[in-house]
Write a structure and sequence with these properties.
The chain is an alpha+beta fold. The protein has three helices and two strands, in the order αββαα.
Amino acid sequence: MSRAEPSILSHGGRYLVAGPTPEPVEGTWDSARLLVVEFPDMDRIREWYDSPEYRRAREIREGATRIQMPFAEGSPPEGFTLPPRPTGA
């Protein structure tokens, strides 16, 4: 994660949720952590994912841990707002 964080921030990403094992109330969850990262748009997340900085983090992680990483496009539902993006982001 320490390798990935600078690359996430440099591509306009920001952490929305990061924490230990979630408590599933419906279904199952078999991962030790939950991390939700927001990017300005799908192009930026794809640029980040294919960037040399993140590629290096993926190589380090390979074989050491198992992750699930979906990309999802969307916006907050009506009546719901996200906190403002930090200035300079």
